[in-house]
Amino acid sequence: MIIDMRLRPPLKSWKNTAQFTEGTGYYPSRMGFPRPLSVKSQSVDDLLKEMKEADILGVIMGRQAPRPLGIIPNDEITEVMQQHPGRFVAFTGIDLRDIEAGVKEIERTRRIEGYRGVSIEPGASFTPMYPDDRALYPIYERCQELDLPVSITISGMLCTMVGNDLAYGSPTPVARVAKDFPKLKIVISHGAWPSVMPMIEVAFMRENVYISPDLYVNGINMPGSQEYIKAAKSFMPDRLLFGTAYPSRPLKESVVAFREWNLPRELEEKILYRNAARLLKLE
């Protein structure tokens, strides 16, 4: 089995967002990525067929962001997990406009079967923030206490899609968070692309930082992708994670594109399954 660390099903609240509708803000279309058939049909059943074909377990990353990204209620994520047991796990999406309420939401969802972490997107929030903003520290502190990994989505693309400055896509502030919370496992979704080398610098310095480049490492011709693979081959074989960023790319196509790297079998198994399974406590 393969664990996909960034997969968003066509839930009711997601269907009218940038991920599931074409538009000038939808960046994968600029890169020539094919659209999954299940995106065109906006059908969870079609997605499940594609997941089965690709042998994928999906990690649903919750999202609480302004349009065109959108707010996805965690209860919708809970519903799809309960309707299709064994196909999904999830990271609780937190609305950063109310940190106290966000901590309470972590407490609520952690008791629901399937939730394995917490998802925040500071640079693409309603009020943009850097990951080391002290206002976020109660979230980090509670997740460290509960041994819940935190996904911090860092991507200049997402920042600009909601009208925020590209500077919020820098991974450098993560180094301070990782230092201040040394027992907190931090997943950088989207791998901070295109700031690849600064991201690798942070991961080199802080062993509690994991990189999940998803669509930016699935293919040997993506600029910067080679550096993620070099890092996995050298100092971080246990901290690189696979993801598709569905609906940005089809599942099976993403797996095939990743395997173009022709990695040693043990390393490929770590990236496609074992690293995430350990992080999510699935084994």
Total number of helical segments?
A: 11
What would CATH call the architecture? Alpha-Beta Barrel
Count up the domains. Answer: 1
Within the CATH hierarchy, at the fold level, what is the topology?
TIM Barrel
Q: pLDDT under 50 segments (min length 5)?
A: none
Widest beta sheet: strand line-up: 1-2-3-4-5-6-7
CATH homologous superfamily - what is it? Answer: Metal-dependent hydrolases
The radius of gyration is 17 Å
Please give the CATH class. Answer: Alpha Beta
Largest sheet: 7 strands, parallel
Got a strand count?
A: 7
Order of helices and strands: EHHEHEHEHEHHEHEHHH
Helix content: 25-40%
**N-end to C-end Cα span:** 12 Å
Any idea what the shape is?
Answer: globular
Mean pLDDT: 92
Proportion of beta-strand residues: 5-15%
The secondary structure category is alpha/beta
Q: Would you kindly provide a written description of the structure presented here, covering whatever features stand out?
A:
The structure is a single chain. This protein has 283 residues and is α/β, with parallel strands linked by helices. It has one domain (2-279): Alpha-Beta Barrel (TIM Barrel), CATH 3.20.20. It contains 11 helices and 7 strands. The protein has helices at residues 37-41, 44-54, 74-83, 99-109, 137-146, 156-161, 172-180, 196-205, 225-233, 251-258, 265-279; strands at residues 2-7, 56-61, 88-93, 115-120, 150-153, 186-189, 209-212. The chain has a 7-stranded parallel beta sheet with strand order 1-2-3-4-5-6-7. Helix 4 links the parallel strand 3 and strand 4. Helix 4 packs parallel to helix 5. The chain starts with a strand and ends with a helix.
